[in-house]
Amino acid sequence: MRIVLRKVTKSPLDFEVKSNEITFKGYLEYHSAKLILLKAKISGTLEKSCDICAQDFDLEVDEEIEFFINDGIFEDDGSTELDVVESLDGNVDIQELLHSEIELIRSDYHSCDNCKS
Ligand SMILES: [Zn+2]
Hints:
It contains one helix and seven strands, in the order E-E-E-E-E-E-E-H. It is mainly beta and about 120 residues long.
């Protein structure tokens, strides 16, 4: 699902994509200058190997995500408190964003129920 950033306005543009058991649901909204706000929720289950015993287990995911997408190179003047992701082709690929968020979650430290004390 690709969205052209130029077409995002002040009225929220809803999206919902899925990857296996994970749902990524939220909206894009024009903020200011070339910044587009993305607010979304990632929920579902993710297969992950335990960082202690290396067994695969289902990790419950329920995370709120909020950041800006800048249409082009972002010049930081220090006033933006949220993370900014740059888009160099004027598009945002929601599926690709979801995949990178999933990779981020996977790379965090997680242990299975058996290893949790
Ligand atoms: Zn474990």
